[in-house]
Amino acid sequence: MSTKRKILLIFIPLFLVLTIGFGFAGTVKAVEFDEDGIIEEGEIIDDDLFIGADTVEINGTVNGDVFAGGNIVIVNGTINGSLATGAQTILVNGKVSGSIYAGSMTITLGPETEIGRNMFYGGFNLSAEEGSVIHRDLLVGAYQALLSGDIGRDVHASVGALEINGSVGNNVRAEVGSSSDGQPPQIYPSPPGIDTLVPSGIRISDEAEIGGSLYYKSSEDQSRTIAITPPGGIEFDYDPQVAPNTDSPDPEEVRSRLVGAWLIKQVRVFITLMLLGGLIVWQLPGLLNKVGGKVEKEVMPSLGWGLVSIMVVYLGAFLVGGLILAGAIFFGVVTLGELSKVILTVGFSSLALIMAGFGLLVSYGSKLVVSYLVGKLLFKWLAPNYADQPIWPMLVGIFLYTFLRAIPFIGLVIGVTATLIGIGAMWLTYRDQGELGAVEAQAASPEQ
């Protein structure tokens, strides 16, 4: 029986059992598809909500997590869970008991906004108006963050412009742009939904409160625009990489730093490969010899199959991820909200685990296979007595690979070639083992 038929015989009964077994579950709104994208005031959704439209409005109550997408997303109601949203413009003026994960051109937290946990934002503009509350941390990457509300714990920001007029319970950690030009960026056409565009730099008013310390990293000291001194003090970290008008650093100093960084990187690569290679030699010497022998005998087929294998695996992962998401939405539509969660959790967790394993093979396993073979061939030529002791060929091969990989351009070609050959040899070894097992099984079975 083929592997495909075995999978189908397992999957189809399981699918039927789940569908029939849960088909009589109580009706809940796991996924809401409103034509107008609006959850009316007074409407209650007792499960997670997936909603999308040109304009999405949540004015009612959702007792679960919300996944919203559109041109404009407006939240005036209550979300007893977390909000994950992507849009051009996001307006929040309600309560979110969990965290907000948002990406947009602009997001505004109105005076009635209350976020029970954290806020993670990436985009162009974040405006937190007076009265808005984030009970835990704010993490933002944007051009500007204008904070006039209250933040319970820490602010972590990587922005061009940061203005704080409200309160921060603990610490502020920010990387900000230079304020030397004193002008906001000129953007045409002007970004929609953004009322205020401020110059780059950090500005903290005398009305602001910071309960801990302020640390900011910039190309210039901006203490003149910081009107308060937090209890934990102010720390400025000069960043010469983004300095607009500074003296040129000493070329010899720059060269020595670059050489030092290069050496440290190569040592790290060598140590990592050496530790992993030693582990493989210790635990899987037989498999290592089989794969290395495959490379020695079939270099070009290994190269071709390596390219095909990598393309197929990553494309397959993309398609499987789409199927998992489609399956979760399907079961949500047929009111099996809990099953939808299980599919998302188990499916994406399993896919992530598989891709992490394949990523290790691509990043390290393939190089170790080629390094071991090169080292073994060298020992057969120069010191045959040591060729059968796998640890020495592995170490010498890794050293040669690390040295050659560090050469500009040539190293890149060597790295890509080693990756493709190593992955292809692994696939060919696996295929041959499967074919051999099938032949042995057929030979062992009684004649018909």
Taken together, the total number of domains comes to 2
How many angstroms separate the termini? 16 Å
* Structural class assignment: alpha/beta
Roughly how much helix do the residues carry, as a percent range?
40-55%
Provide the low-confidence segments as ranges: 1-34, 242-248
Mean pLDDT reading? 80
Number of helices: 7
Proportion of β residues?
Answer: 15-25%
**Roughly how many Å is the radius of gyration?**
29 Å
The global form is flat
Largest sheet: 15 strands, parallel
- Count the beta strands: 24
Question: Would you mind describing this structure in some detail?
Answer:
The structure is a single chain. The protein has 448 residues and is of the alpha/beta class. It folds into 2 domains: 88-242, no CATH class; 251-444, no CATH class. It is 44% helix and 23% strand. The chain has a 15-stranded parallel β-sheet that branches. It has a 9-stranded parallel β-sheet with strand order 2-5-8-11-13-15-17-19-22, with no helix packed on it. Helix 2 (251-283) packs antiparallel against helix 6, helix 3 packs across helix 5 (337-382) and helix 4 (299-333) crosses helix 7. The protein is flat. Residues 1-34 and 242-248 have low confidence and may be disordered.
Can you describe this structure in just a few lines?
This protein is an alpha/beta fold. The protein is built from seven helices and 24 strands.
